[in-house]
Each structure stands twice: as C-alpha cells, then as structure tokens.
Amino acid sequence: MAEETTVTAAELAAVQGGEPTLHVDDLCLAAANYLTTEQVDEIRRAYYFAEKAHGDQKRRSGAAYITHPLAVAHLLAMMHMDHECIMAGLMHDVIEDTVETHDSLAAQFSEEVAAMVDGVTKLDKVAEETIQQAQAENLRKMLLAMTQDIRVIIVKLADRLHNMRTLGVLEPEKRRRIAQETLDIYVPIAQRLGMNLMRSELEDLGFHMRYPLRYRALENAVKKASGNRKEIVSQVIESMTLRMEQEGVKGVVQGRQKYLYSIYRKMQDKQLSFSELMDIHAFRITLDDVDACYRTLGVVHNLYKPVQGQFKDYIAIPKANGYQSLHTFVVGPHGLQIEVQIRSKEMDQMAEAGVAAHWLYKTGVEGANQAHHRARQWLQGLLEMQKGAGDSVEFLENLRIDLFPDEIYVFTPKGKIMSLPRGATPVDLAYAVHSDLGKTCVAAKVDRQLVPLSSQLETGQLVEIITSPNETPKSAWLNFVGTAKARSQIRHYLKELRYEESTVLGRRMLEQHLVAFSTTLKDVPEERLEAVVTELKLASFAVLLDEIGLGNLLPLLVAQKLVREESMGDAVQQVPLMIAGTEGMVVSFGRCCHPIPGDAIEGFVSAGRGITVHQQNCKNTVKLRDQHDKWLEVAWDVNIDRTFPIEIVARVKNQRGVLATIAAAISTCNANIDNVTTDERDSVYSDIRLAIEVTDRVHLAQIIREMRRLEPVEHIMRQ
Predict the structure, then answer these.
(1) With pLDDT > 90 as the criterion, what percentage of the chain qualifies?
(2) Does the CA dihedral 20-23-27-32 come out positive or negative?
(3) Residue-by-residue DSSP string for 232-272
(4) 96 is catalytic
C-alpha cells in the first residue's frame, strides 16, 4: 500500500533528528539534581567505558554510536532513576555490540549493573529461527530478566523511545515492522506499568511511522477543529474554575488536546468518522486530596449535564496498573461532549510516571510503592505464564492477551475486588485467585445464582467459585477463557496429561510390534535401549515412547532397531492394539464414521496427534490407503466401560409430538441424546438427525428396533 511508505522528507528529518545532541555534561547535570557526587562520578565513568567499548561504531544516521546510549541514559535521568539504572542505560548495548562481556561489566562496576545490561541484550540468533521466533525469544528473555529487576524494562522502554525518535533513517519496511512491534508490545507494557507519558509518546511515534497518511490526515483535521474550538476550551476552563472557587474548592483546571493515536483508536473502536467524534479535548482537574475530588465531581455535574453511563470511579476501584482518577463525560457548550478527569496531585504523579515513580518519589509517597508492588505481582504472573508456555511464540501469544485488558471488576464472597479483562469467565477468576482453585473449579455462582463456567462476567457482580477435589482442567475451557494466566495453566496441564497418555500408548504400540519378533521390552538390554535413543537423537527413552504415541515415530522402525532386524520378514505378524476408549487425547475416533465397539476398525497414525480410529469401510480414508506405514492394526478391548457418540437419521411423518415420541423410545433403551436437528423434506415427511451415545453395536441395534416400532417412523439410517 502506498500509505505504508509515504513519509515526507520533512517528517523523516523531524523523526530522524529526534532531539538535540547531548553531551555527557548534560547527563551529569541532570543526575546531579537528585544524586550524590560519588554516584554522578560513577555515571561519568560508565559513559567513558561505553564510549571506549563502542569505539568508531556509527549509527545508521552517521552519528557516533555513543549518542544513542547517552540519550537513553538522559531519559532515565529525567525520570529520576537511580545511578545504577542510568549506568545500565549507558552500557545497554555493550555486551551485544562490543567485545565486552557480562563478567567484565560485573568486574568493572557491579553484578547488578551487569545483570541489567544482560537483560536487555538480545540472544545470539540461531540460523533456523524465523523473525517471529527470534523476536519472541528475545522478548521472553528480557521479560524474565525483568522479573528479577524491574529496571530492565525501564531501560528497554527508554531505549525503544529513543530508537522511535530516530527511526527516520531506516528503510520503509524496517520502519513499519519496528513501529508495529512498538504498538503491539512496548506501548501495552508501558501502559501495564502505568507509565503514561512514555506510553503516549511511543503511541504517537508508532502511529506516525506505521500509518503516515492517516497520521497526517488526522493531524490536519485536529488542527482545524482545535482552531474552531479554542474559545470553547477557554470558556470551559473559566467556568469550571469560577464554579470551584464559589464552592471553596482549590484546584487547577487544564484543557488539552487528546493524543492523535488515542483519537484514531476511538474512531476505529466505535466506527466513527472524525466529524462524528465530539471529544478531541479532555479536561483535567488536579486537587489536593481525595475528598476534594468527589466534591469537584458534584461541582462539574452541577455545571454541565453528565452523559448517562459515562462515569467511571477509578479512585475507589483502581485500574490493574494502579491508575486512579474520576472520569466523567458531560455535555458542554454548544452540545459538545467533553471528558473530564478529576484526580489528586499524587494520583497525577503516579499516572504519569507509573512504576518509575518508585524511584522518583522514593520516600513518603504511598502510591509509588503500591505501583511497584502491583508491577511485581504482574511480573510474578509472567513467571507462571512462562512455565506453562511450550515455546517462546506461545509465550508471546499469551503475553499479547495479557497486555490488552479492557477491564471489569468483580467481587469475591469475602469482598475482595478482582480486576479481569472484559469477556472473562468464572474460570478466569478462579485462576486469577489461585492456580489450584482454577484446576478444581466445577461450577460458579454469580450474584448467588448458578451459571455455566463459560458465562462472561460483568462489572459489579459477586462471584463464588465452587470446587471439587477430583475435578481437573478441561480442553473445552480453552474455547472461552479470556486471561493469559488461565490459558497457559490449562495448556500446561493438558500437555502434561497428553505426555503421560502418549507415553503409555507409545509403550503399548512398541510392545505390540516387539511381540511380532517374539520378545518384549523387558527382554531388550538396557544398553540397547540407550543406543537406540542416542541414534534417534532423543533425550530419553520416555521421550521416545512419547514420540511413538504421538505418531512422530513408527513403532515398527523402533522395534526393528531394538532387535537389530532390517525388515520384518514374511513370518512376522502384527498383534492388534487393543482399544478401550479410555486412552485419552492421544487416541481419537473419526467424526466421519463414528466407530463403536462391534465395528471392524483400523487405526491411522498421524504426526503430533496419535491414533485416529476409523471404521474399515470409512469412505473418508480412501485417499490415505496408499500410506501403508501409517495404518495400524487395532481391535476393540473386551472390557469397555464407556459410551461412544453416533449419528442416526430417521425419516418421519410430520405429526404433532413425533419428536417427543422418538425421545421417549430412545430413553427406554438407556441412551442419551446429545443433539437433534430437523430438516423438513416436504409437507408429509421430515428428516430428524439424532446425535446419541451408545455402548456398542448391540445397544445401537436395540435403539433402532425400538424406533422402527413407532408408527410415524418410515426409515432409519446410521450415518
């Protein structure tokens, strides 16, 4: 698309220039405002170390490379980060781009500084990795380092912000990719940590570079609209200030234009054109304390009529990142809707700096410590998510889910407020409270009424989770859970369960083929087992069994290697693998032919899925017949204690009550009906398709006999 590449020379120059050239003295002056002389000297020493390490390296713009880490460190100093964090900012590319190592940094400075630098250092790229895998693995490494020291992500965000400010020198494709990554990952992380100033600039820079034509068009429209509404903004500020003075409330009213990306997202989310968008300006009222906030809310609502359903109290119920404020929409002059945010000075400081406020306001400010504590809780959740993820790409997928919460707030029976993403279910809540509660939940009560576990929760509901010690997570839960923690925990359990089942099945399949060689696993020497595992480049014999059970390795091939035979020979005969229907996820039954005990069956082995059992005359397997090595001889076990799904179609006369009559007949045969669909053929006949559960062919025959006795039934056919 032309839009993706159309950035004007002036815009590129603006982004490329980014900010004025800095000198190390500028950095030290900024740090000296709040750090000791000894700490500033350490920062200066780190600068000269980084300058020497980078040597003659240049940025794509042609500037000396050291200008980038110097700018990053200056950003950290403006955030009042501690001296070790600023030192890490100065040296954040040293391990990645120079001959210096973690150990040399630890020896020269400290282990803390070296660990921070290592945390933001990309992994060595593996040739086979895709860009997505490399990106995901590097991000996972950084986030796990961040769980040890949260300053890692603050350094990374400062690094990304300066890179975005100087993105103009890169080719269009790379600009788009980095801008999209910024909008997808780094903007939500900054938001999750409550760093709104950082988030807003990253958003607008990412929007500018990713969608330049849209950015330019929206910028022009906003300038035009702002010119027309200047008087209204001044009028609103004046009116609010006057009314607050009359009520004896001291505060500062500010009017500001909303960020372009915020306007763009609102237009997208609500499917509005710019002309339909009423609130491109927002007003912020900053006061001394919480009591004044609520009093001012009354003043604003008295002055301007509030919009129904557009009030949010984030003071009583803060956002997940700790953000606190009162939000309300009111109808201002000329019928324009305006957004008003009301907060205390401390809340305003926390909203701008987020987790960085832990360093900016170290002493005496409760909100700063709370922001840091919330960030730690989130990072602990990341650790749990990492343990449940199979690979870095899955971890990145879970992280994306976690980073985009449109929040709701529900209450536990003990009155605790829980924040969840919109669309969350009782299962999500159970996992949010504790992993063990999630694993054992069987039902839920919402406002004291039983509801399905798949029900979507809403703000203000009282939710009680009902558990059973024998309950385990179900794969069906993955279809409706909305939080990354619940999804990763369920997947982790199912993977463990699948591993156990596939290992057991793999052993049975291998034993089945070894019988053909007149031997068993017990008779195979231990050193031979180890030799075959080594030859197949697997970690252990258990992994070998898992690979067989999943269909990734042919049991015949492994059996041959274990007995040192090159081929089976004419005299060797397979012993059928017995199917009981309790093998779990690694044995499935074809939905095309619905095999049941009593049917002649065969098994098809597919990589990663295990065995799929089909009827021998199944039409859908015709194309697979030539894959002889994938077919497995199977037979039904003698003792089977479960039901199997089956579909039958009954052609019936169109009579009142015919469906109830058929259901009663099936019920007398002790069978359950899972689903019923009806297709009216003409004015006389209809086809009723029934999904029922039967134990075997004898049970099915009994059901069909009972149905044929019914007068309205003309014909019955098994699908």
Answers:
(1) 14
(2) negative
(3) HHHHHHHHHHHHHHHTT--EEEEEEEPPHHHHHHHHHHTT-
(4) yes
Locate CATH 1.10.3210.10 in the chain: 20-210
Which strands sit side by side in the sheet containing 672-680, from one edge to the other?
A: 672-680, 685-694, 644-653, 713-718
Dist. CA 150–CA 116, nearest whole Å: 9
Whole-number Å distance between alpha carbons of 500 and 506? 10
Query: What is the per-residue pLDDT across 28-62, written as a single tens digit (0 to 9) for each?
Result: 999 998 889 999 999 999 999 999 999 888 888 88
Kindly tell me if the per-residue pLDDT of 1 is higher than 50: no
Distance, in Å, from the CA atom of 715 to the CA atom of 35, rounded to the nearest integer, reads 90
Question: Which residue is catalytic, options 11, 97, 184, 219?
Answer: 97
Checking if the pLDDT of 150 tops 80, the result is no
pLDDT at 295: 92
Q: How far apart are CA 71 and CA 62, in angstroms?
A: 16
Q: Where in the chain is the domain with CATH 3.10.20.30?
A: 406-482
Question: For residue 560, which of 538, 537, 532, 527 has the smallest C-alpha distance?
Answer: 532
Active site residue 687: no
Sheet with strand 441-446: strands edge to edge: 449-451, 441-446, 463-467
3-state DSSP of 363-396: CCCHHHHHHHHHHHHHHHHHHHHHHHCCCHHHHH
Enter the tokens of residue 169: 């020198």
Rounded distance, CA 69 to CA 51, Å? 9
CA distance 477 to 421: 16
| Amino acid identity, position 557 | L
Tell me the β-bridge partners of 314.
Answer: none
The residues facing 304 across adjacent strands are none
Name 25's Cβ contacts closer than 8 Å, sequence gap at least 6: none
What is the end-to-end Cα distance of the chain in Å, rounded?
50
Rounded percentage of the chain residues whose pLDDT exceeds 70:
82
**167: exposed, middle or buried (C-beta count within 10 Å: 0-12, 13-18, 19+)?**
buried
DSSP 582: -
∠ CA 89-94-95, rounded to 5°: 115
* 572-586 pLDDT, tens digit each: 555 677 888 777 777
pLDDT at 481: 87
611 has which bridge partners?
A: 587, 605
Domain 20-210 top-level CATH class: mainly alpha
Class of domain 644-718: alpha beta
Instruction: Report the CATH number of the 222-360 domain.
Output: 3.30.460.10
- The residue length of the chain stands at 719
**3 state DSSP class of 448:** coil
Shortest CA distance to 316 belongs to which of 419, 392, 386?
A: 419
Asked if 624 contacts 606 with a C-beta cutoff of 8 angstroms, the reply is no
Catalytic residue among 96, 184, 201, 696: 96
Give the pLDDT of residue 649.
92
CATH topology of domain 406-482: Ubiquitin-like (UB roll) (3.10.20)
Residue 70 has pLDDT above 90, yes or no: yes
The CATH 3.30.70.260 domain(s) of the chain lie at 644-718
Query: Pick from 540, 477, 537, 547: which is nearest to 510 by CA?
Result: 547
Residue 11: pLDDT above 70? no
Place of tokens 């699908």: 719
Which residues, listed in sequence order, are joined to residue 613 by a DSSP beta bridge?
A: 589, 603
What whole-number distance in Å separates Cα of residue 646 and Cα of residue 373?
54
pLDDT tens digits, 74-104: 999 988 888 899 999 999 888 888 888 888 8
* Every domain range in the chain assigned CATH 3.30.460.10: 222-360
